[in-house]
């Protein structure tokens, strides 16, 4: 059953506050496109009393092209990390890349076990409408500051995980 609401269930809000990435689905000319995105969740803003999810993408991206012709989007967010063991025994499959495992009894082994167990297991799909914020606007500056504050990582993480474009494209 489909429902429309300006608020989100508590479990979904908790998931949005704790997860680092979500999957964004856009579509244009009946051709879907899915992207892994980092984001910022805000329960409300000076520009909207409803929940907002901020993401950035370059203005030349397929996502932007799709959103310019169709603002309807679907988001998939989940709060677990799954670990799939190497697939060596199945015929026709290449082995999964592997790293040396953590030493027995280490904190890394404990954390790997916790991630593998998928403790929370919350997953939700949110359908909505995207808005491309006008470049150079006060609204863009405010959203950009919120998004950068939420997605500032260490020097080695920044290059790998940031999807913030150099030249704008906040929506």
Can you tell me the residue ranges where pLDDT is under 50 for at least 5 consecutive residues? Answer: 156-171
Order of helices and strands: HEEEEHEHEHH
**CA(first)-CA(last) distance:** 28 Å
The profile of the biggest β sheet is: 4 strands, antiparallel
Q: Count the helices. How many?
A: 5
* Helix residue percentage: 25-40%
Share of residues in strands: 15-25%
Class per helix and strand makeup: alpha+beta
Number of beta-strand segments? 6
Using only CA atoms, what is the Rg?
Answer: 19 Å
* Biggest sheet: strand arrangement: 2-1-5-6
Overall 3D shape: globular
Mean pLDDT: 77
Description:
With 171 residues, the chain is of the alpha+beta class. Helices cover 28% and strands 21% of the residues. It has five helices and six strands; from the N terminus they run H-E-E-E-E-H-E-H-E-H-H. It has helices at 10-18, 62-69, 107-117, 138-150, 155-161; strands at residues 21-28, 31-38, 40-42, 52-54, 72-78, 123-129. The strands form two sheets. A four-stranded antiparallel beta sheet has the order 2-1-5-6. Strands 3-4 form a two-stranded antiparallel ribbon. A hairpin with a 2-residue loop joins strand 1 and strand 2.
Write the layout of secondary structure elements.
Elements: H1 10-18, E1 21-28, E2 31-38, E3 40-42, E4 52-54, H2 62-69, E5 72-78, H3 107-117, E6 123-129, H4 138-150, H5 155-161
Antiparallel strand pairs: 1-2, 1-5, 3-4, 5-6
Give a brief description.
The protein has 171 residues and is of the alpha+beta class. It has helices at residues 10-18, 62-69, 107-117, 138-150, 155-161, and strands at 21-28, 31-38, 40-42, 52-54, 72-78, 123-129.
């Amino acid at each position: 059953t489909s429902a429309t609401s300006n608020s989100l269930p508590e479990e979904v809000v908790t998931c949005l506050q704790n997860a680092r990435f979500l999957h964004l689905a856009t579509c244009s000319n009946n051709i879907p496109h899915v992207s892994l995105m980092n984001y910022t969740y805000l329960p409300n803003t000076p520009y909207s009393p409803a929940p907002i999810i901020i993401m950035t993408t370059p203005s030349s991206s397929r996502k932007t092209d799709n959103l310019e012709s169709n603002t309807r989007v679907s988001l998939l967010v989940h709060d677990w990390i799954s670990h799939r063991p190497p697939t060596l025994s199945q015929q026709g499959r290449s082995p999964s890349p592997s790293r040396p495992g953590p030493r027995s009894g280490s904190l890394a082994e404990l954390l790997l076990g916790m991630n593998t167990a998928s403790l929370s297991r919350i997953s939700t799909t949110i359908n909505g409408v995207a808005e491309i914020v006008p470049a150079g606007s006060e609204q863009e500056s405010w959203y950009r500051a919120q998004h950068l504050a939420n997605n500032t990582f260490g020097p080695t993480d920044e290059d790998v995980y940031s999807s913030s474009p150099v030249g704008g494209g906040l929506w």
